[in-house]
Design goal:
Strand order of the largest sheet: 1-25-24-23-22
Mean pLDDT: 92
Largest sheet: 5 strands, antiparallel
Shape: globular
Number of strands: 26
Distance between the termini: 35 Å
Radius of gyration: 21 Å
Helix content: under 10%
Low-confidence stretches: 386-401, 438-442
């Protein structure tokens, strides 16, 4: 019996949705820019992990995009798979490319990257090496390279050099070393570092130039360890972090009891993705936005409830309290109806809405501060993972042990109309009523 699921735009309230474009790579490895009607206005025959349309203020052009350009050919796949990363203009011409200049002749960029204000690229990369704190075997260590326009590495940071700054307990160290020893060739890495973003200008630094929240400092995420950490760009030290542990009352039951109480202390995050500081000029500027997957993770594993549900959390970095959140219950639905145990992200939009990628399901949606879903889209583009192709014999989707088709979307980006060239279709969002509802207005 064939399984069917929704496809395309399934709901739109144009009066309350923030109009613009949405960029994402489908599971067919094609990157597309769609409008809120689900119409593809432009595409590129490359995957991005993630794809990112670039701010014209940084490039001097409209419509430049960053994607992955070549496979490394490494049979391990995962964080080893990317051979080259680059920047294309709107026409698809290559403006910059980096891969053969990288150590080992392959970029091995994965999970994140950023074009910095100085014109350099910050790349999250994999470096196969021995990490003494984990044993004598070569493991997939992850870290950051800052690469200049000529392809030279001008700054680097490797997670394996800073493990003792992460706050692991004795049990945590034992679990971490056991994991690394059991599978040193793990294609997703022993920590699965999955995000890296410089803070940028922010009010905490404006108020106190001695704060740890310097604009150049870099916020990173370690999915398997339940850690969000801030790296001092000058010293390389971890100067602020959330996790890996959240106290005796931080489990899933505590979350459910206090689900609608904010502000409140941050409780157990697990398998989180894309923590970043909300940029100046947006509602919540200076706070940290986190997609808390609530997927299995942790050294040792965090205790999670049976009613699996993901959350989007906005955290005040000074008090480490949740000041806003979104769960399915905020839309009047059971918690398990919004869940992605891996991938995914959230992005604060002008006006206060938040674009959410429920990546495991291929579902993208906008939610208001009050928790109302005002736009919903299900990717119709199926495949075998972000970097997979139908003829590939090895599964490319993390956690999938056989070749399985999926609508997976790693991360989506809301894009202002003004960031693309003139003449790009710009059709206003049209109302689409949800099944059983006569109007698209709640």
């Amino acid at each position: 019996m064939a399984y069917t699921r929704p496809a395309g735009v399934t709901y739109c309230d144009p009066e309350n949705a923030r109009d613009g474009y949405v960029l994402f790579t489908g599971a067919d490895s094609v990157t597309r820019l769609i409008d809120l009607n689900g119409t593809v206005v432009h595409d590129w025959p490359f995957a991005g992990v993630p794809p990112r349309l670039l701010d014209p203020a940084l490039t001097g052009r409209l419509g430049d995009i960053g994607v992955q350009l070549a496979d490394s050919g490494d049979p391990r796949g995962g964080i080893y798979a990317n051979g080259a990363v680059g920047q294309l203009d709107w026409s698809g011409d290559r403006r910059w490319e980096w891969g053969t200049q990288a150590p080992g002749g392959a970029a091995r960029q994965n999970h994140d990257w950023e074009l910095l204000p100085n014109g350099n690229r910050l790349l999250l990369v994999t470096v196969p090496r021995v990490v003494p704190d984990l044993g004598d075997s070569t493991v997939g260590d992850q870290g950051l390279f800052e690469v200049d326009e000529h392809g030279d590495i001008v700054w680097q940071w490797l997670a394996g050099d800073h493990l003792r700054e992460f706050g692991f307990s004795e049990r945590g160290w034992a679990a971490l070393r056991e994991t690394a020893a059991r599978d040193p060739e793990d294609p997703w890495g022993y920590l699965e570092m999955n995000s890296a973003k410089s803070l940028g200008p922010n009010r905490w630094y404006d108020e106190d130039p001695e704060t740890v929240f310097h604009p150049d400092n870099i916020l990173v995420s370690f999915r398997k360890a339940n850690i969000v950490a801030l790296i001092d760009k000058t010293s390389g030290a971890v100067v602020w972090k959330l996790g890996p542990y959240f106290g005796e009352t931080a489990g899933a039951q505590h979350q459910r009891i206090n689900a609608h109480k904010v502000p409140r202390p941050l409780d157990q995050i697990s398998g989180q993705h894309n923590p970043h500081m909300i940029a100046e000029g947006l509602p919540g500027a200076g706070n940290i936005l986190i997609f808390d997957n609530q997927g299995g993770a942790g050294y040792p594993p965090a205790a999670l409830g049976i009613y699996a549900g993901s959350r989007v959390l906005e955290v005040d970095p000074r008090t480490e309290q949740i000041v806003w959140q979104y769960t399915a219950e905020d839309s009047g639905l059971p918690s398990w109806t919004f869940f992605s145990s891996f991938v995914s992200n959230a992005q604060r939009l002008p006006g206060g809405n938040t674009l959410v990628t429920e990546g495991m399901q291929g579902r993208l949606f906008q939610v208001t501060p009050a928790g109302d879903v005002v736009w919903e889209y299900h990717s119709p583009y199926e495949g075998y993972g972000v970097a997979g192709e139908p003829e590939v014999k090895t599964p490319r989707v993390p956690g999938v042990d056989r070749l399985t088709r999926t609508p997976l979307v790693y991360r989506a980006q809301w894009v202002p109309f003004e960031w693309v060239p003139a003449g790009t279709p710009r059709t206003p969002a049209r109302a689409v009523a949800a099944p059983g509802r006569e109007s698209a207005t709640p």
